[in-house]
């Protein structure tokens, strides 16, 4: 009998995780950047157009804010169901279908005959888009080598920030030159291109194993998180600071559109370019938290948001812009610190803990963004600032309470 016949059969090779020097890693980086860019462009691009919607459809500022708050609200509600769906059907199909259908619905928004139809489409859009942010972290954690995970997550977040910023700017500029319908068609087309780039470049999952997690198990893990002494407070913070941040950008656009500033839609789009500060603020706050501790950094960032908010009461545009810049730095820094704190605090079911955090994050933007519009109708910008200062004072109180939290080993 030959030696080859006695040789044991070759074992199936376990796929290796993607390393930073591999072509597949570079394709994945392009894919997730395009996915993050497309998602945030579609979600946030209509925010600076709220005054135009008030004029075109004869609706109040609170109603006009629905083009964002309805989208973020349904996105929040879809996060956990989308993550459970991806556990059964696979990561890439759910994410790719989510972005492609979101782009199609954005294109359909340009054909909306009335404001109610526009809100319906934007609500459906938020629900289907939940599939990408809900699943992206799980996909990257499964497929990437740990040494390259931070870098590619940074690219994904950079795509989010850049998409949110440039989407707003482009939509505002096209509205000034043409119409809001033209802007919507352009943003939907960009979303479709991003969906194609995402599908073409993102490798299929190699380490995904379908699971069928029961709702009872999810409920038990949820109760576990809410029995923790710190996590419920950490879940409350994004609801408050995201709600305040969205409200600032929502209704400051009305203030800057009116006298004494009289900014055009294109100029308002330039104001939204302050979002680029968030790309650097997140990394800076993360490094600072690693050095000084999250408990010692988070409350300072929330306090910075309050200080910046007070500056926006000025009637001198440079001071208003400075206040908005401080708010933006504080917000993105606080988000980076709080979200990473959740990951360290949750010792099991971390994906669920992150999903709960993001649900609170988007719901805050939806609920408080709408309530701030009601305040705007009664008391204009000073009333909005007063309302948001109360919200941020509650948030500051929570962060000071978290300073006393006993750390857990992870």
List the helices and strands and how they pair.
Layout lengths: L2 H4 L16 H22 L5 H8 L3 H4 L1 H24 L1 H19 L5 H15 L1 H13 L2 H32 L2 H22 L13 H13 L3 H27 L7 H7 L4 H17 L1 H18 L5 H29 L4 H53 L8
Helix pairs in contact: 2-6, 2-9, 2-10, 5-6, 5-7, 5-8, 5-17, 6-7, 6-8, 6-10, 9-10, 9-13, 12-16, 12-17, 14-15, 14-16, 15-16, 15-17
Assigned CATH superfamily of the largest domain? MFS general substrate transporter like domains
Q: What is the residue-mean pLDDT, rounded to a whole number?
A: 86
Q: What's the CATH class label of the largest domain?
A: Mainly Alpha
What's the alpha carbon Rg, rounded to whole Å?
22 Å
Kindly estimate the percentage of residues that lie in beta strands according to DSSP: under 5%
The CATH topology of the largest domain corresponds to Growth Hormone, Chain: A
Question: What is the helical fraction, as a range of percent?
Answer: over 70%
Helix and strand pattern: HHHHHHHHHHHHHHHHH
